[in-house]
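Changelog-adjacent note: as of this version, every example in the card shows the full chain rather than a window. The one below runs 279 residues end to end.
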Amino acid sequence: MDRPASEPKVSADIYDDQYFLQSCGGIEFYKLYGPKILKPMMRLSWLRAGVKKGMRVADVGCGRGEILYHAVAAGAEAHGLDYSTASVAIARSHSPAADIRVAETEKLPYADGSLDLIFFLGVFEHLYPKQQVAAYGEFWRVLKPGGRVIMATCTNRLYHKNLTFALRRRLAVFLRGLGVSVADPSPPRSDEDLSMHVDEQSWFSLKRFFRGGGWDVELFAVPNVKYLVDELYGPELPSDLPLRGIRGRRRELYLTLLFRPPLRWFLARAHVAIATKPA
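Full-length structure tokens:
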């Protein structure tokens, strides 16, 4: 699929070694464990995927290649692609047995009906709407009937810090006018977010995206992953895990009383969508 000259695109140049090795999401896990222990949203997606030996699996937008490392270890036929050459080089260093290429989501280098499973993690919000539609068109083409796309977003644009930022900033100005020493709140998005997250999603925008597309979709709102530490990593956690879990009564009350519709659509920190191509 050729992209019209007028359609914008985030440059691959900003996804360089510095990004993947210093600031990309989950870097605190990667610096400690390399690809061996997955960051929380990646771990959640991996557990939902159920990768089995012999499956033909692709990670589209593979980043550092952590998922590919685990797919190879599980005995799957692992394929990865990214339009960043830095990403591909790093991923290849971890998983030489995987087929990892430089390519774009709008034109996948796979035959029709050739894949069982596609991971699409933390990529969707980096694409403009036409690219998102084109990507899912390609996913439909290359998946076998019954094949699935495991997609995770790393943000929820309705999360409270975005909704209330302007109000909190005005409150700080008001309090300073009364002589109270109060700093302005931190901007809800970093400069990096603003340059890369060109289309952040909400529960409602994701529902609209999949409506009428032919996919069978399960959409999950994900709370702060501190509430999911035991579920994700089991009881024998590494002692140096860079994430402190929230447990006990506080966890129970939050998940049972607060994290319910409609509040969870606004409180969710991220989303996982599992789209299945009907058999």
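Structural remarks: Residues 160-177 form the longest helix (18 residues).
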